[in-house]
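So, can you check this one?
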Amino acid sequence: NELYAKQGRAATNEMAVKTRQLFAADTSLMGYFNRTFDNGKWDGFMDQPFIGYRSWDQPKENNLDAIDLKEIDIPDSASMGVAVEGSKDSWPAMEHGARSTGHVPVLPGFDPFNEQRHYIDVFNRGKIPFRFTAAADKPWIEVSLSSGEIDKQTKLWITIDWVKAPQGNLSGTVTVSGTGHDVSIEIKAVNPTAVTRKTLEGFVEEDGDVSIEGAHYTALTGQGKNRWINVQDYGRTLSGMRATSPVDYPPAVPGKNAPCLEYRMYLYDSGKVNVEGIFGPSLNFNPAHGLKYAIAFDNQPPKIVTLVPKNYNSWGFNFNWALSVMNNARYSDTSFTLKKPGYHTLKIWMVDAGPVLEKIVVKCGRQPNPPPRSRMGKRPFMPFTDMRKSYLGPPESFHKGVANEKAD
């Protein structure tokens, strides 16, 4: 409802009505349980409020006060609007109401490994239906619907015919026309020559990212009783790789006695990359050591990363600890410069026992936006944010020849 209001969609008010209907349906379910389950034996058992929280304390009753439902005036005449997957903006710009910016709409990228399909929303900003057409300027770009009538809205699915697509970095456009407006959406694809779905070893970049589950390593080097152990079903997505050693063992040293996880991947470009590590929300159970690990690409010197410093105190107004609880994770951010495209191997060494590696996201050429300030005025570290925000991070990238695939 909020998104539709910003874009001026004719379906905005319907979303507000639907939200209220679903809230009423939930309330009815609670009442039905109280009245009928075992002849009312458990009347009131499910009455604790859970919708309408504004702080840690529960509201007196379920309510929609925390949700700012929008209702907008819908013009009588037809007016086409276009939105694309991954963006909150809409085109063409309106004189009043819907949000739109001057930049050109661009769909997320395409590649032959992940064989993505992405969507374009064509919607009405008015009450009268209108006709539209959609056409691509390249024969390898496929549009699910070339024309039709829009009452409220419809989705156009965009795919790539990889048999027709030439090799290299590709670009094209899909133009949507209606109510006197043309909106051109940029299509970007990469069809590499050096590697294919059949020949790939490890992971491959997808739309600027490489997303890897920690348990899906391409190589693992053990060092005696210092080990990485797969803890199945741990964490927020698949599992976790826990750094472990005997009690009172000193920190491990990369290159000497530190076990190492390796993740082989194919990247399309050289330059700066940022590696986001997603770890379990552990504390420094041994205050004298803290929690550290080491990381590097290829044969670069390892960088020591501190997840939790020694003598860390989670008491009081420690916003860092509060974030790790809210996110059920700790995040790290490490930058590297790669001199050439192609295959690279990311290496992660144990230093201290305790860190649990859940997921890795390699950001190719992207920078994090500044995180929000806390009420104490400091900027706590937050996970990467870009135009497609996600609590769990991007889905795992296409891969071949990795460990623990049966864990999926």
Observations:
- The helical segments are 2-7, 12-36, 319-327.
- The CA atoms of residues 12 and 343 lie 47 Å apart.
- The first strand starts at residue 80 and ends at 84.
